[in-house]
Amino acid sequence: MTTQSGSATPRAATLTDVARLAGVSIATASKAINGRDQVKAETRLRVLEAAERLSFAPNALARGLLKGRTGTVGLLTSDLEGRFSIPVLMGAEDAFGAGRVSVFLCDARGDAIREQHHVRALLSRRVDGLIVVGSRTDPRPPLSADVPVPVVYAYAPSEDPSDVSITADNVGAGRLAVEHLLSCGRRRVAHVSGDPGYKAAQDRAAGAEAAVAAAGLELVGGQTFFGSWSEGWGRGAARMIVEQHGDVDAFFCGSDQIARGVLDALRELGRDVPGEVSVIGFDNWEVLTTNARPQLTSVDMNLERLGRVAAQRLFAAIDGTVRPGVEELPCRVVTRASTVPIS
């Protein structure tokens, strides 16, 4: 472009020009001009002098970049089709707010190599931070140590205690479920759960055992009955328990699928729910709880809230405030017709 006199219009100096003149990287020039403390004093002075010589005046977008922000974050899940990851992701996106932050969503499908590929792709887009959402509550290996942006782990905590992890309090949830049954007047509580290899199953069992012990009682059979996360296991376990412990008056089930099987077996055995026996499930999966007969009381892990808190912790980490360690969020009981107080 030329002026009417034919002389060329001088091109406005860019951050790249400043970095080149100062002999530093663009990232260092950005940090120096923005006053961030990761830059040595002499380097900062050299960058500021270069900016002054070039009459560098960043526009509004550039000023945003100088703050070290691109307004983008990465959400990395290991199970996009999973029952638990979707609510967490929805909560995180709610916290990011429509239009305020752009979100890149990647599904690693439980594959570590695919996960690393997605991490590299997200970093190439200069995301401000990452939220990593697991498919189960077992601690997972952290991302590579050279990831240059804040990372928050949601639902599945990182194995590294110096990382920021947000998960559900499954021990507290097990205690909460049994306390609800006890408040209904039940005293012979059986706990039927899923795969014992899952940390969630062990944690819920620990909470249940603590709750009955605090009431001076013990679980029916003196143990948690572990099996699979299925209705079939729930039906078989309920039949076995009723045959061996006919005075059982409550079932705490480790998942709603198991609880549906327990309800089916109790109905087939002629045991009235909730008149004779109370049943509580876990996960509050509404497609199961509201279609059960009777409708199923269940423990809700508040997964959308968990996602919102994870996003809030990521915002804080981007701003330099990090709360390392595992933060366990409380669950709640959603009461329906399968549990009522004994009249």
UniProtKB/TrEMBL annotation:
What the entry lists under SUPFAM superfamilies is as follows: lambda repressor-like DNA-binding domains (SSF47413), Periplasmic binding protein-like I (SSF53822)
Under InterPro entries, the record lists:
HTH_LacI, LacI/GalR-like_sensor, Lambda_DNA-bd_dom_sf, Peripla_BP_I
Recorded hits in PROSITE patterns, A to Z, give: HTH_LACI_1, HTH_LACI_2
Alphabetically ordered keywords of this record = DNA-binding, Transcription, Transcription regulation
What this protein is called in its record is LacI family transcriptional regulator
* Gene3D superfamilies recorded: 3.40.50.2300, lambda repressor-like DNA-binding domains
Q: Does the keyword Transcription regulation apply?
A: yes
- Where in the numbering of this chain does the HTH lacI-type domain appear? 13-67
A Gene Ontology MF term for this entry?
DNA-binding transcription factor activity
